[in-house]
Amino acid sequence: MTSSGNPAYKVRIEKAHFEAMVAHAQNGLPNETCGLIAGRVERGAGGEGVKVVEKVYFMTNIDASSEHFSMDPREQLSAIKDMRANGLALLGNFHSHPETPARPSAEDIRLAYDPSASYLILSLAGDGEDPVLRAFHIENGIASPEEVMEKGTATFTRGDL
Amino acid sequence: MVLTVGGTRKEYPAELTVAKLLEVEKVEMPLYVTVSINDEFVKREEFETALLKEDDSVEFLYFMGGGF
Question: Does B26 touch chain A (CB under 8 A)?
Answer without folding.
Answer: no
